[in-house]
């Protein structure tokens, strides 16, 4: 049973006529676009730090058409999501590969960095300068592991919005206990809500996603100072994903599985990452080195003024 109310201004005349076009139905992107009047703008694909103009085109013109194209050949939306996650993983492979290698080199440089910190612990400026020299010598960018992840964020936000808004998943079954990809896949009801978290129902795919997140973190995080994240992050994500649609959880679970396989391939099949000095003739000044040079020049000028 639906009810609606429309408030219009009344001019007090003896006869007033108004005409309307009303749409009552699902927020289906293709259907809304077919009607016209820019109604497809009602579909919310999310935003990336307020930059909707970046996220929306990715979801609207790339991800959604790809998702619907796969469904032409695969009728079950659950398997569509699995194939879809594999394609996205292949697309972002160059970025993740670069991120893995950069983090590996940073791990290998840690002993040398600790030596510099110990040697110049009383001279922070000299310590930073020598650390940057070390990065330049071995061609390592300290932000190299994070930058590829940042570049992937708009894609992940667009995916998030896509699976939250996709009417196609409504009442669509997958396999086993997953009978509606638009709702959480409940495998157990606690009968009470967990304090602070408000969780009452346990999602099977959320648990699987948490387990694979733990395995992935265990493979990638080697720094002893960050070991707590190996345990904290999977638990927090599992709790967060408990109330999410099973289609979204299925995507992230499969994405984690493919990420684990990819990381194993990079670490074992392509040989270990070599940490060797870069040929000086091939060196290019990066942003960080230019920043350090500018800071050093500014420091020298200040010292001259003091003299």
Descriptive overview:
There is one protein chain. Helix 7 runs antiparallel to helix 8. Helices cover 59% and strands 2% of the residues. 23% of the residues are buried. With 307 residues, it is mainly alpha-helical. The chain has a two-stranded antiparallel sheet. The chain is built from ten helices and two strands. The protein has helices spanning 29-35, 52-73, 77-91, 93-119, 124-138, 147-165, 204-220, 227-241, 246-268, 287-306, and strands at 186-189, 201-203. The N and C termini lie far apart (83 Å).
List the helices and strands and how they pair.
Layout: H1 29-35, H2 52-73, H3 77-91, H4 93-119, H5 124-138, H6 147-165, E1 186-189, E2 201-203, H7 204-220, H8 227-241, H9 246-268, H10 287-306
Antiparallel strand pairs: 1-2
Summarize the entry for a quick read.
The chain is an all-alpha fold. The chain has helices at residues 29-35, 52-73, 77-91, 93-119, 124-138, 147-165, 204-220, 227-241, 246-268, 287-306, and strands at residues 186-189, 201-203.
Helix and strand succession?
A: HHHHHHEEHHHH
Tell me the major beta sheet. 2 strands, antiparallel
Structural class: mainly alpha
Shape: extended
Number of helices: 10
Q: Average pLDDT, to the nearest integer?
A: 76
User: What is the share of helical residues?
Assistant: 55-70%
Quickly list its features.
mainly alpha, 10 helices, about 300 residues, single chain
């Amino acid at each position: 049973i639906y009810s609606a109310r429309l408030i219009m201004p009344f001019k007090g005349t003896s006869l007033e006529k108004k005409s309307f076009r009303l749409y009552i139905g699902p927020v289906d992107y293709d259907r809304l676009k077919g009607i016209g009047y820019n109604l497809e703008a009602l579909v919310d694909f999310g935003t990336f730090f307020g930059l909707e103009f970046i996220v929306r085109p990715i979801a609207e013109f790339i991800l959604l058409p790809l998702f619907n194209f796969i469904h032409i050949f695969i009728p079950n939306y659950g398997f569509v999501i699995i194939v879809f996650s594999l394609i996205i993983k292949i697309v972002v492979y160059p970025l993740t590969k670069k991120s893995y290698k950069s983090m590996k080199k940073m791990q290998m440089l840690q002993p040398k960095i600790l030596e510099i910190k110990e040697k110049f612990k009383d001279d922070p400026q000299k310590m930073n300068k020598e650390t940057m020299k070390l990065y330049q010598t071995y061609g390592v960018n300290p932000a190299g592991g994070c930058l590829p992840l940042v570049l992937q964020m708009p894609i992940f936000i667009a995916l998030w919005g896509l699976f939250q808004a996709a009417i196609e998943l409504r009442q669509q079954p997958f396999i086993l206990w997953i009978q509606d990809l638009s709702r959480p896949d409940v495998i157990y009801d606690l009968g009470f809500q967990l304090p602070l978290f408000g969780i009452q129902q346990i999602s099977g795919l959320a648990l699987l996603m948490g387990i694979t997140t733990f395995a992935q973190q265990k493979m990638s995080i080697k720094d002893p100072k960050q070991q707590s994240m190996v345990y904290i992050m999977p638990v927090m994500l599992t709790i967060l994903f408990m109330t999410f649609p099973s289609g979204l959880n299925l995507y992230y679970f499969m994405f984690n599985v493919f990420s684990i396989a990819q990381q194993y391939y990079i670490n074992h099949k392509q040989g270990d990452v070599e940490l060797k000095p870069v040929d000086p003739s091939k060196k290019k000044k990066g942003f960080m080195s230019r920043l350090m040079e500018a800071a050093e020049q500014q420091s020298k000028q200040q010292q001259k003024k003091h003299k």
